[in-house]
Design goal:
The chain is mainly α. The protein has helices spanning 2-35, 72-80, 82-96; strands at residues 41-44, 50-54, 63-64. It has a three-stranded antiparallel beta sheet with strand order 1-2-3.
Amino acid sequence: MSNSSQLAVQPEAERSKAVGNDNCRSELLYQMTKQLVRDPYVEMVKDGTYQVRVPVKGHALPHVFPYEFRTEEEAKTWLKSPTGCELVQKVRDKYAT
């Protein structure tokens, strides 16, 4: 009878160990996102338009420019334009402090 009670307790102990590992992984991912800054990118949204997003250091979510582009090429062209480059730099400077 004591064997069956020990078996019932072991899975709970294993689950708590696994949760601890998940917390460590989450913390590690958070620290990595704080340090890494990806390049700006274009992403399609639900309504079929495209948005330009800029990952910023120390934030899990990217900055989203309030412009909607009809095509991916249009968004990429804007992103590579002098105006797009300037605005991306302003966003990065804003979040750098």
